[in-house]
Structures are given as structure tokens and as C-alpha cells.
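Field guide to reading this record: the first block holds the primary sequence, the second block holds the structure written as C-alpha cells, and the final block holds curator observations. Each block starts with its own label. This record concerns 5-formyltetrahydrofolate cyclo-ligase, catalogued under organism Vibrio orientalis CIP 102891 = ATCC 33934.

BLOCK 1 — SEQUENCE
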Amino acid sequence: MKFSRQDFRQSIRQRRNQLSEGFQHQAGRDLCQQFLSLPEVKPAQHIALYLSADGEVDTMPLIEELWRSGKHVYLPVIHPFSKGHLLFLHYTKHSPMVLNKYQIAEPKLDQTQIIPAQSLDVICTPLVGFDSAGHRLGMGGGYYDRTLAPWFKTGQGPKPIGLAHDCQHVDALPIESWDIPLPKIVTPTKVWQW
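BLOCK 2 — STRUCTURE
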């Protein structure tokens, strides 16, 4: 039986939503340690992250550690008039937040806080699942595929890094022509590189 992308999404989301709160908390701390040891992170000053939702590995320990080390953190905001695209806004403890159409918290749109995606050093991408070849299965909106397309074509610009729980790995995913594979995915126990 061949599984569809939707089957994979449902199965993996169910798997990660069954993780206990204590496990989630520890996974977030472990992921933070793995991420901070990456060679591309040490010199990076402008790092795009995201706030965890729907059982995603907890990014708050990492965000707080990056703040402590004086790095700038940015969060994705759904572009108000360019359908399917993201903007990245500077994020601090005091950023006013709003819920987007998916009920995910994002910084309130303020043009003075926007950074062009090409000026970021690292873009951390959420994902539902990933496979042994670095293919990423997102939620299906294509936001990150569009954001990462220039990097995929030229190899220039911010370095994409996927973040996930170990249980989100599968051997092989069904892929589409527009899918952007990731060069690196970090889980609480491992750094996957291609």
C-alpha cells in the first residue's frame, strides 16, 4: 500500500502529539544544545526561528539562549498581500503578538521590524516529517518552499536548517517537483546532513 503525503502528515503529527509535556521540554533543551554546536550558527547574528505549535519540538529554549548570547531572532509572518509568502520580523520578549489565520502566534506587522530574507544568516524551518535523503514534508502551504527557492537555485543566502523530533523521521517520503530538500536537519539526538 502506498502512503500519500496526507497519510504521512496525519501519522507523524499524531506521533509527535503523543509526546508527554516532560518529554517535549527535555527535547527542546536537547535540540538547543545540538543547534548551538553547529558551525554555521556560531558566527550567525540573524536567525529566523518559529514558535512551536501542534506538537512541534519546543523552540523556546533555543530562542531564549540565542537572546542571551546577543543574537537577533526573527519569526515568520504571513505576507499580507503576497499570497503564500512569508515576511520575517525581529522578535524580542516585548514584541506585540497576534494570531494568524492558522491560529499561530506571530509578531504584529510592523515595517520597521522586517528583515529581508536574504539578510538572514540562518532560516530554521518547521516540518511535519523528513526522510533519509533530506526531503522535508511541511504542512502543505508551500511557504518555506517559496522562501528557500532562491537558496536552492544558487546556494547563496541564508542557510536552511530543519528542526524536528526524532520520531518525525521516516525512510522515504513521496516528493513533488517543488519540494526543497534541506541540507541539514537537527533533532534532539542527531544532526542529519546531506
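BLOCK 3 — OBSERVATIONS
The CA atoms of residues 10 and 55 lie 12 Å apart.
The first helix runs from residue 5 to 17.
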